[in-house]
Structure formats: C-alpha cells, structure tokens
Structures
1.
Amino acid sequence: MSMDTETNRPKIQIDDLVREMTDEEYAEYETRNANAEPLPSAE
Amino acid sequence: MSYPVFASGDVLNASDMNGVGMWLVKTQTIGTAVSSVTVTGAFSADYENYRIVVSGGSASADGGLTMTLGSTAAGYYYSMIYSNYTGGSAVAAVNNGAAWTNAGTFTTNANTVVMDILRPFESDQTAICGTYIGVNTGGVNGQYGGYLNNTTSYTAFTLATTGGATMTGGTIRVYGYRN
C-alpha cells in the first residue's frame, strides 16, 4: 500500500533538486515572510 | 595579440588570462513552481567578491525576493531608496532581520536580481549592494546596500518569494570578480 505524503507546501529547489519544503524549511520560509516588507508605492 | 582583443587561433597566455576580471562560477536554472531556490557551491576561496544576476522566467505574483546565506536566519541589515514609475521616493529598511528582504524581484513578467556580494566566503561580515527592478507597470525601482552581521563563512545562498508565490524559469548566474 502506498502512502501519499503530499502536503501542498511550497516547493524548494536546491540546485537541480525540487521537492516540497520540510517542516523546518517551511518554518524558515514563513519567518522570512513575516519579516518581509512589501514595498508600497513611493510617495 | 593585444588583450582583450583576441583573434582566431591566438594562444591564451597566462598574462592574458590572468587579466580577465570576471569569471562565471555557476549557472542555475530556476525550476517549475518553486518558492525557494538554494544555490550551493557559489562561494569559495577562489574569489573574494561576486556578482549575482537573475533574469528571465516569471512568477505567479509580483513581489520582492528575500535572500539568505547558508542557514543563517538573523543579523541581516539593509536599506533601500526606491521610486515608482510616476516619480517620488521612499525608503525601506531591515534592522537585524531574518533575511535581506527585497533583494530582488519576482513578477509575472520576469524574476530579477542584480547584486554585488563582498567577502561571503571570508570569516568576516558580508556586505551587499544591488538594484531592485520592478518589471511591471506598477513596480518600483531601488538601490540598496547592507550587510550580514556575523563572521560566518558561506558557500551557498537562498532566494525565496514571499506570500507563497512561485517562480518558474529564469536563470541564476554567479560571477566571481578576479582577486
């Protein structure tokens, strides 16, 4: 019996390898997201 | 032969080759629908300073790319002055952040980074300067500088989208400035 481990998390690419992010990688990605500052239009 | 003009059949003398100021270190094609790309083996003792260029491809949305070195998630400092296509100016900054935010752009038209990175492999602070390019009508363009406040030696870097956006295609090129 096969088990489906897809989580629909964002994909990470490391050189030519593409796969879903691990728990740790996803947490790091979310941390960077939380700290990211979208640029508003210049006044 | 007079460097830098070469003719077919010329011998590549050491003196000529040693005068080449920039070498392509690594090329990485961005995959399909990825939110983060790590480039390993980018920095080494061969070069002190590097230029990173990302061009081409597209993204599922528009925004700023974050950049981190190795597995470091703190100590990033950065500021940028930017303007949109109707003029004006504004500033953005990162003060001891988890990444250099807005180190490049991802848009539905292209993904871009133009960055010089100084001494990433050396065991001292790594400095950056670069250009933020908004490749869309509502985009902004900016010039930034910053540094990473630690003395870690790095060989790899990661570029990531924000908000779960994905990139498809485009090329990351890393050049080394000859010491």
Note: The longest helix of chain A spans residues 23-35.
2.
Amino acid sequence: MEPLIDVNRSLRECTSLSPSAPIWQDILAQAMTGEILAAMNYTSLSEICDDPAEVADALEHSECERGHAAAFAAEGGKIGVDVANNVGAKHWKRLREAFLRCITERDFIGCLIVQEIMLESFAVASYSRVGKVGPGSLGETFARIAAEEGEHVDHAMSILRAERARDAQRFDDKVYRLHLDVMTTLAKMLAKECKDGHCEVCHANCVKPSLFEVSLSAAELRGASLQQYLKTLDLLGIPGEVTLTWITQLPV
Amino acid sequence: MDNSVASVATPARTIGVDLPLSVDFALIGHQESWRAAADVLAVLRGPERTPLPDDEIKDILPWIPPRAVCHVDVGSIVRTKSGGARARGLYIDSFIPPDRLEAAYVHENIARVRKAAACAIQAGAKIVSLGGFSSILIEGNFDQLPERRDTVFTTGNTLTVAFIVQGIQKMCALEGRNLRRSTLLIVGATGDVGSGCARCLAPIVKRVLLSARNLERLHKLAAELQADGVQVEIATDLQQFSAEADVVICAASLASPSLLLGRIASDAIVCDAGYPKNLSPTAEMLDAKVFFGGLGQITGGMKFTPDFHGVLNRHPFPDVVHGCLLEGMALALEHRFEPFSQGRGFITQERVAEIETIAARHGIYLAPLYNADGPLEDGLDARWNGREDESIGRKTKTKSNSVARYFGRRENWPAYPIFAPGVNTDR
C-alpha cells in the first residue's frame, strides 16, 4: 500500500500557526496512522476471504479507512500543518504484526476481533472525545469518522455474536489471547506517559502532556477507550466480571 | 428450604473460574473510599502485578461501567438432607466514584444504578438488594429501574433498622444503661432508616429528638410518634434541641464522614449507621461509646469467587455484611422473592420483627460491635437476643482486645474507613 503522505517529507514551519496547531498535528498524525493501518489490515483480510462478497466488503472497508486518513491529512492542511504517518512506529508495528499473525493463520474471526473490537473501540471512543473539543471542521471530521467507525463495529458484531453462539468458551479464549497481545500494546500507547520512549509518531516531544491545552487528556482518552471496549465486549456477551479482570490487568 | 441450593445453577463457562450462570440474589454496591476501591482493583489485578498507583485508580475507575465483580455463595444454618441450605448470588458494583456521591452527580449515579440493576436482571437474579447510595438514589422511584419480569428489588432497609436497633439495645446492656430513661437523638430521622429506627425505639425511650433537613417531613414523623404518646422534639439544626441526647443514631445520607454532633451527653452511646460513615474523624467525643451500626453476621458461611474476603467486607470479624445487603440474602435463603423494603417511611416494628425472624432462622444475627479503633466485644460470643431489659443494671465492660483471635496484631486490622458493599442511610 502506498502511503498517503510521504513520512520523509519535512513538516511545514509552525511558527505562524496557532499555539495549539502542533498539538492537533500530533493528534491527527496518530489518527491518520491508525486509519492507514486499518486500511492495510482490511486489504490483508481481503486476501484470506473465500467469498467474493467478503472480499469486496473488506476492500470497501479498506478504501473507507483510506478516505478517513485522507480526511485527517486534509484537516491538517486547513490548520497549516503537515500530518505525518508512521505505521512502522513501534506500537503501531506491533499492532500490525498481531493482525498479520491472524492473517497467517487464516483466522477471519481473529482478524475481526483485533480490528473491529479492539482497534475500532479505541478509535470510536477517542475520535468521539476529540470530536467534542476539536475546533470547527477538524472536530466535525473526527465526530463524523467516529460515527462511521461505529457502523463498522456494528457490522462485525453480528458476525462475532453468531460465532460466539457456536462455542462461547472457545470464542472467549480466543478474545482473551488476542486481548493479551493487542490490548497490552494499546494500553501502553494510551498510558498517561510514554514510559518506553518516543512513540515515533509525534513530530517532536510527546504530545500527551500538552493535551490539556486543547481540553483533552491522556487519562480521558484512555478511560473512554477502555469503557468503549468493555461495552463492546458486553454486547458480545462475554461476562462482565471476566472482562473487568482483563482490563484491570492491563499495564498503566 | 427443601433443597441444598436455592436454584439450580448451570455449570460455569467463564475463563479460569468455575462460576454459576444463574443466581438467586444480586447485591448492588459501591466503594465508600478510594482505598476500598484500590483494594478491589488490586484483587482483580492479581498479586503478581504491581498494584495500580492511586492516581491511576482515580483516572480509571470512573470509566468502568457497572458490572458483576464476584459471585457470593451464602449458607444457612437450616439443615436439609443434602446439607446446609445455600443461595447463590452476585456482587455488582456500580463503580460510583467515592468522591462523586454528592447531589451534583445524582443523574450520573442514577444511570449507574440502573445499569447495575440491568446487570442483575440479565444475570437472572430473583431478588436484588440495593446497597449504600444505590437505594437512596432509587428510593421512591423504583419505576426508574429497568423493566424486569422475574426480578424484585429491595432496599434492605428493614434489616438495617433491625440491626441498628439491636445494636443500640446491646450497647446499652453492655454499658449498663437503661434505655427507658434515655433521650434518643436520630440524625437523618426522616429517611427510611431513620424513621424506621424512630418507630422501633420511640416506644421504649424517655424522649426522642429528631433531626433532618426537611422540616415538613420532621413535623409529619413527630405527629405520628406523638399520636402514640411519645415525647418528641424536632430540629433542623442540632444545636436547637433543648436537651442533651445520651443515645444517638446517625443515619444521614452524607457523601463523606462530616457530621459533628455538637451538644450530646459526654458519655453518649453513638451508633454510626452511615455508608459512607457519618461521623467526622475530627469529631471530639472522647468518652462517647461509638459503634458502627446496621451490620449483621452470617453464621452459615459465605464464600466469594474470586476471593474478596476482607476486601468487600472490611470488618474485624468474619462474614459481617451490612443489613441492607443481608436482607436480600436472607430472603433468598427463605425463598421469599419479594420487594420486602421499598419506598420511604413504611418500616414498622412488625416488619422489622418479621425480617429479624427470617434472618435469624438462617443464622444471620447482629454482628459483634466495633468502631474505627477495633472491636468493642468478643466476636465469638456475638449473638444477641435483643432483650435489653435482662441486662439492665448488670454492667459489662465492652472489650477491645479480642481482635487478635481473627487478625492477630492490630496493624493487620482492616483500616478505617471500614468498608462493606453498602449500608443504607437517611432513607
């Protein structure tokens, strides 16, 4: 897949920008990277689908995610910043590798769990929060994309619920295994501080300590994301006391 | 009870732990302090992981949707052919943050209680006890609870009143006081618990002082008691009473321990029945006999899965639980799936006697008395028959050194604020 934005391209000078522009730049960069990764994941998923309708569906989703990435890039342009993306950044790379392991195993259900339950839960929740505080069209774009991602999740839920109905124990075991792999990485990404060093997506220093300047906080984004994840797992029918244990055991 | 398990449970299908799917009762509660919340999360996190730092807990907990935390298996002393009768239940935490109990958060908290109630209904609970602020929030508005077909809700306030009254009687006996010569002050008197205590104790004390915020309700309660010949004084301000109380019940719905009693007898017997506790830690009552009221003890056994013993019930004695939650358990053991306590102002002596009898039949009695400094008596001889007159004049010093039997050294005692999932206050 071709990157939408050349990661090596130098960022525009931010000296004449609004004080919050560099913060939005990094928020957009994280979102855009997530969308590009999602597009790559759906393209990979199409390669293991047997049913032509499923292939078409996966490719359509991929295009949709590319469109989201382009929309985030455009919002950067409106506030005078280039929006970088880096799917090779350490955390995003691990998430991609987790998805690719499911692809290697031709595990369609595993792919849906990673992308729709875990990654999209975080996207829907964090985009929604950003949508509430983002200025003008930037906020509107985040809110619109949050709603569209929510529709993706709804689509996958019916497939996953049917799968769970066939063998709940097996399904829950699979979700837990993937949870340990994927959610541990997501939890580190959303920790209040990046303890493992620079995330390789923010254009300079870590954006987290500055989020309060745009009425956000890392704690709020993490909390909302975990809540969305728990609610999604509830809708799947996984017992609440079990998922509660899962999330309390995540790294902080 | 004619079988060993109050309902037939389906074998577990959850990960790692064998848990039943269907339950007889559910207990809805919340944590009264951040320390208590931290302990719950520490158990869930497991001993092999570093406990979450306090700031992380305060960040994360408000985002957790209401959900089951553990299963609770309670035993009765009623024997059957297959052993002791038992009932299975769930503890559901509404995850109301301990610092968000104020009125400003009422709508948010009602939504949490509704979601917790939905969890109980979904789990198939036949009876649900609403602990702590859960019942205050829903009190008189049970129609705000989710639609349910086979699940009933009880505030549990009647059994709470029973244990408060028993505690007062027992403490008077232990201290050699004659309750009939006492002036009783009830703070939070117009609440369900406060008014229930007034109806039960007014006939057996010399004088009653009623305090609450709502003057109209105070007048109404006073009129009700005066009609029975009780000497009653009311005030919205504790300083306005003309007499000093020597027996006090604190049953106000306070978001944090902040009550200063002011002018009471220096050696007054004071029952703090609040959840969270009512009395301010700064209250100076050096000679007062303070104890935590409304608590009962299960003698037929109680099991948490996963093991939350000493975490969900932080008391210096085993198997102690707040009366409001015990009411649901007792009714489940009795197979009486009915909304025993609902609304405000319906607790009578007769209803209190009825729930006391049901609880006692299953081995649920008044808990040994204790306060923030530890036990006030020997927990191994805790059963109290409630007849205070037998002890009048026979002064028995309250004990404070028997805790070692359960917890060893004092530093191992559960720390104040004492926690258990819910006691009803000012209802």
Note: Residues 1-15 of chain A have pLDDT under 50 and may be disordered.
